[in-house]
Amino acid sequence: MKVFYGAAIQGAENRKKRAYIHKTIINTIKKQGFEVYTEHTTGTTYQEAIKKLEKSIGKMPKDDLTRRIFVRNKMIEAIESDIKAAVFEVSTPSLGAGIEVAHAYLRPRMGIKEIPILALYEKDYWPNKLSTMIRGISKEELPNFTLIEYDDSDEMVSIIQNFFTRLPLI
């Protein structure tokens, strides 16, 4: 069973700085018995991220715009596929991850089965705090969406384990 994982990589101040967090999240998901759709967020360089992405979605076009369209379409297809859940690390602002979050929680409006969604935010990581577009999602509006702040990677791992323990069996 697959899980979609999304996080900022383009807007990150330093890929290496957040790659450890992404790797920790992905490894924790895998330890829960799930496969992660793509692990490209763990790439510490652009080339490494591309290699990991191609492993998941196939050879990418050389042309920059064509490549971007291809990647975007593949990510949306993954979110709209038969995944069990979606997990997002939202500490670093990201237009792309924001679009992925929206596609995940809008699945029912597109006639696709609702999935549990976990958004993780490292407390006080970003100077301007978490985006209102994420912070403003309420449990009343989207009961399948869970936003949790964490202080450190140990707490983050515990949150992820708890999230997957509570997933309905399918």
Word description of this protein:
By secondary structure, this protein is of the alpha/beta class. The protein has one domain: Rossmann fold, CATH 3.40.50.450. It is built from 6 helices and 5 strands, in the order βαβααβαβαβα. A 5-stranded parallel beta sheet has the order 2-1-3-4-5. Strand 1 (2-7), helix 1 (15-31) and strand 2 form a beta-alpha-beta unit. Helix 1 (15-31) packs parallel to helix 6 (153-165) and helix 3 packs parallel to helix 4. It is globular and about 45 Å long.
Principal-axes geometry comes out as globular
Main beta sheet strand tally, sense and closure = 5 strands, parallel
The number of distinct β-strands equals: 5
* Unreliable spans: none
Compute the number of helices. 6
> What is the CATH architecture assignment?
3-Layer(aba) Sandwich
Average predicted confidence as pLDDT: 90
Question: What is the strand and helix layout of this fold?
Answer:
Blueprint: E1 2-7, H1 15-31, E2 35-36, H2 46-57, H3 64-79, E3 85-89, H4 95-105, E4 117-122, H5 132-135, E5 145-150, H6 153-165
Pick out its properties.
170 residues; alpha/beta; Rossmann fold; 5-stranded parallel sheet; 5 strands; globular
Please outline what is shown here:
This protein has 170 residues and is α/β, with parallel strands linked by helices. 43% of the residues lie in helices and 15% in strands. Helix 1 packs parallel to helix 6 and helix 3 runs parallel beside helix 4.
